[in-house]
Design goal:
- The structure is a single chain.
- Strands 1, 2, 3, 4, 5, 6, 7, 8 and 9 form a nine-stranded mixed beta sheet that branches. A two-stranded antiparallel sheet has the order 10-11.
- The protein contains eleven helices and eleven strands.
- The two termini are 36 Å apart.
- The longest helix is centred in the C-terminal third of the chain and has 17 residues, at 219-235.
- The chain has a domain at 1-95: Alpha-Beta Complex (Spore Coat Polysaccharide Biosynthesis Protein SpsA, Chain A), CATH 3.90.550.10.
- By secondary structure, the chain is α/β, with parallel strands linked by helices.
- This is Putative glycosyltransferase.
Length: 293
């Protein structure tokens, strides 16, 4: 299997127990990373530094990059990309939990198709207890399906991706774009001819649910969505009708009160249906609801 790096950014507001769980899930994989680059986005708390020191002493593959001040996720990831040794880089958030076979499944996809630029997968979401899954976010599999899917919503779950570092840098890396840096990156990569694929399995367990939906609103998000859709249209990666539809659907949800947005999420997006964990909630693609809540 090809060697790969894992890229994580952490900042002072993270909880130490979340970071510990995230790092444990990275190192306790069926295929352990050849390198893990952990970016400290500004000074951390003593408790977080203790967790970092604990893992740094235990795993020689962990490399810590300390930034003098907080620069935000996108810029922190760019700094981390500069020091990643390998072309394959897996993204991981500092409060999520990777499934044990995540990297093995992604490496297999790259081995079977060397032309791939991004390999993502499904996520499950929980609010407090990782054992209590409240929803699952799935996405299509093949490049053709995903580029069609992109016309309505982001084609890959950012926290699950493993990508070619060279293709990311070719597209300009992470760039500040309101709060939508990852979506903006996928659009630019598609415009540069990137090939996408999603493993049709759950790869990451994410802290989300209704609490996440309540946070993803406000005029800044709404303005960002409008600007992003316009940019995508001008780049030729979505059609004019796609731009209008996406703005019409997403803009009202972004500016409505958090309580109403959470209600929409819990009553419509999270509709219980049978699934492999006893139940899963209805996908965004099965309801006319913005998927990025």
């Amino acid at each position: 299997m090809e060697k790969f790096s894992v890229l994580i950014s952490v900042y002072h507001r993270e909880k130490k127990e979340y970071l510990r769980e995230a790092l444990r899930s990275v190192f306790e994989q069926t295929i352990e990373p050849d390198e893990v680059v952990l970016v400290k986005d500004g000074a951390l708390t003593a408790e977080l530094d203790e967790v970092v020191d604990e893992f740094e002493s235990k795993y020689k593959s962990l490399k810590v990059l300390s930034l003098p001040e907080n620069v935000g996720l996108g810029m922190a990831l760019n700094e981390g990309l500069k020091v990643c040794q390998y072309d394959l880089v897996a993204r991981m958030d500092s409060d999520d939990i990777s499934m044990p076979q995540r990297f093995e499944l992604q490496l297999k996809a790259f081995a079977e198709n060397p032309e791939l630029s991004i390999v993502g997968g499904w996520i499950s979401e929980f609010e407090d207890d990782p054992a209590e899954i409240v929803s699952e976010r799935r996405a299509p599999e093949t490049d053709d399906q995903l580029k069609k899917y992109f016309r309505k919503k982001t084609p890959v779950n950012h926290v699950t991706v493993m990508f070619r570092r060279g293709r990311v840098l070719e597209a300009g890396g992470y760039q500040h774009f309101y709060l939508l840096e990852d979506y903006w990156l996928w659009g630019r990569m598609i415009a540069c001819g990137a090939t996408l694929y999603n493993v049709q399995q759950r790869l990451v367990n994410v802290r989300g649910g209704v609490s996440m939906a309540t946070r993803r609103g406000g005029w800044r998000y709404a303005k960002g969505e409008v600007c992003l859709m316009y940019r995508f249209y001008k780049m030729g990666v979505i059609r004019f009708v796609d731009m209008l539809r996406n703005i019409a659907v997403r803009f009202p949800v972004r500016i409505m009160p958090s309580a109403i947005r959470a209600l929409i999420y819990s009553k419509l997006l999270r509709k219980k249906i049978e699934g492999d964990s006893g139940f899963r909630h209805k996908k965004a693609s099965e309801k006319n609801i913005p998927p990025a809540l």
